Amino acid sequence: MRDLKFSTVFQSTSLFSLKDSNSTNSGAKSLFLPSPYAIKMALLNQAITLDGIDFESGKGENQLFNFVRDADIGYFVKGNYCVNNCFVKILKPSRSRPGQVQETVSFREYIHTNEPIEIIFTVQSEQQKLFLQKYLHKINYFGKRGCFFQFMEYKERPNKPNVNVYSGDFLHTGVLQEYDDFNEKFSFEHVNNYGGKNSVKREKRILVLPLHHTSASKSFTSYLVV
What pTM, to 2 d.p., does this model score? Predict the structure, then answer.
């Protein structure tokens, strides 16, 4: 069975922030791109919200979950990325007063990009492709709520990905970041916030983003895709 490729193009319409899953709540750098995990969670959310698909019921719904889980995701990026550094107030559980919360200051990064992001999907069947395309164009944010994206188009002939998986066998130029993806052993219970299965860990991939540092100050860092 040969692989099928297509891509979907999104334009960020607000500042983007999605912290590394290894970060603490008090100090969190942002990923430059929506992770495969975040994209797949957004797909599941649309399928449940719009069509009420019960991925826990078994039967054909298991196959539909596998359509999302097994999709391979790559990226083609261009333009400029500006990372804004700031300190924000957040609420966290109080140590001295159980059951209550307290204010604290946390470091956050918010990213602006001036060009669309092309998300490239590799799938195993036309049925899988049609299922994903039924919901991808209805997604309006990735990561944190308020990090809005506007769907622009599908491409049947996507660009070649320029964000590569890191390997130690040759010299890489760019910015390295660790991204989460669904593990091949995941079932819906492993990603359900109300489920009880946590034994299977997320798949980790270190990606090399083709970004060149151009300028910086205490409040921002600017990069150019090369």
Answer: 0.91
